[in-house]
Amino acid sequence: MSDPDQIADVHIKSGLRTIRRVAPYLWPRGQIWVKCRVVLALLALLLSKLVAVGTPFFYKTAVDALTGDTLEPATMLAVGAVGLTVAYGVARLMSVGFQQLRDVIFARVGQRALRRIALETFRHIHRLSMRYHITRKTGGLSRIIERGVKGVEFLLRFLLFSIGPLILELLMIGVVLAVVFDIWYLVIVAVTIALYIVFTFRVTEWRVQIRKIMNDQDTDANQKAIDSLLNFETVKYFGAERREAERYDLSMEGYEAAALRTSYSLAFLNFGQSFLITSGLVAVMVMAAVGVQQGTLTVGDFVMVNAYMIQITMPLNFLGTVYREIRQALVDMGEMFDLLDQPPEVSDRDGARELRVSGGEVRFDRVLFRYEDTRPILKGISLTVRAGMTVAIVGPSGSGKSTIGRLLFRFYDVTAGGLYIDGQDIRDVTQESLHAEVGVVPQDTVLFNDTIYYNIAYGRPGASRREVEEAARAAKIHDFITGLPDGYGSLVGERGLKLSGGEKQRVGIARTLLKNPPILLLDEATSALDSETEAEIQDELREMGEGRTVITIAHRLSTIVHADLIVFLENGVIVERGTHEGLLAIEGRYATLWHGQVADRGSSDRMQRAGIDAGPVGA
């Protein structure tokens, strides 16, 4: 098998797989009303084609009546040319009416299918692991979803209501030509259509490859544009506007080249289609003209043959475009269904139960974890955080501190060992129940492009206005919010960029305070705050932590001196553990880091006394 044939075979199999995936949305189990609508739409389609195929008979009889041809029975001619012409018009109107009725009946089915597929895709993306999302380009992902859903809409509209009806109409017209005229009319039409379809499909398959390249370039350009806009400040910091424009233009240059090849190949396709259709039309019309000259056919027959050929050629003219779009839709839908076939790395086990938190004890039992096989992060961590205890995890960058938080929230599963909450392995409970019991304040708070009220209330759906404002007060941001022109209705911008880093962090803290979880994870939660605000919020966080299990991941050691237990993590191993005073007494790694930060703070204080703003320590 040649390479083009292999490619075509792969595409056919992929297309059939995609069609099989879409079919259940059109014929869902237990949905009788959906099936009834599909049947009624197909019935309306059949009626429209029956009327369309019968319409040229009225045209022929009217012409024969006007020319005085007597090959038709007198009873037909007695109706009169005017009446036949009116009947011809009514028949055409009925054909269009049945087509529109078909669209009206099927519209709800199609829109329902689109909605279900879009929702299923959206939910699946949220089920995929963090590993998938941090390695996937968001811009390219959004394009796959967008094109996939549009592809479903196109496929439903054209495959069911263009290709299917066209095949039905061609079969019916072929039968009429063979029965009413001669088998050779059918042979010529059949050969013409066969050559036309083969030519169209071959050229279109070649064009689909070009279109795929064009899509790839479009996705790449879109990704570069979104990435650049999301990093607007960084682009400005490094004066990289021209560089970003050049990167974008380079992708658009590839898109332009593929688009030109698409245009040139379209011209070739259109000319080849016209040549084949015109050849078949001329051959059939010559046969009909000879029949009229010989007296075996009437002028009305000649006109009817012409009407049927036009009826065939008009939809065939769109076949190349429709086929190409269907192929492209199948490609786009295939990418979307490939996304749906992507298995979640972290999923609930069969029979997973709800997490029941009685006290909130968290236990790491010889936990091993690696992001990649060659890159171990945690190397046998064992740690018990008793209920109501505050444990701080400190250590140099890259030691695995944030990884512990991600494992606790089950963004990843441990490679070996176990992680337990009140004796329950978190792999045996539902993710939804786990997430409900663990509150997280991340180092970098990302907000929705909505109001401040929405972002705080996101912590607990259904929370009252009073509860939202109390959480904001506890996070020391209520006064700031009420001072804004729109108050809690102020928009924060995309990713919260209208707020400062500290303001975003306080909104994030308020959001978690509102959630009110029994287990609290603070991942550098006050790193973006100034020293004064940090001290205020630390008091609130300590108060919030009473009666809860709190795990704090910190870089600034001054924020965790009151912790019940401090764990020093280095290279994925716990090297020291104890209270603040106890760790200072042994003069180990923690003490060295503490004295270094104290020295830095002293230098900062001297600079401030000299009138130099050094900024917050550890910022």
**Distance N to C terminus:** 64 Å
Calculate the mean pLDDT score and round it.
78
Strand order across the largest sheet: 6-7-8-3-9-10
Can you count the helices? 20
User: Could you spell the SSE succession in H and E letters?
Assistant: HHHHHHHHHHHEEEHEEHEHHHHEHEEEHH
Q: Give the quaternary arrangement of the chains.
A: single chain
Strand content: 5-15%
Low-confidence region ranges: 74-78, 603-619
Number of DSSP-assigned strands: 10
Look at the helices and sheets and give the structural class: alpha/beta
How is this structure best described in words?
With 619 residues, this protein is α/β, with parallel strands linked by helices. 65% of the residues lie in helices and 10% in strands. The strands form two sheets. A six-stranded mixed sheet has the order 6-7-8-3-9-10, sandwiched between helices. It has helices at 3-26, 32-67, 74-77, 81-127, 130-135, 138-181, 183-230, 232-237, 241-294, 299-317, 319-341, 401-408, 431-437, 452-457, 465-474, 478-482, 501-515, 531-545, 580-586, 589-609, and strands spanning 362-372, 375-385, 390-394, 416-421, 424-425, 438-441, 519-523, 549-553, 565-570, 573-578. The two termini are 64 Å apart. The protein is built from 20 helices and ten strands.
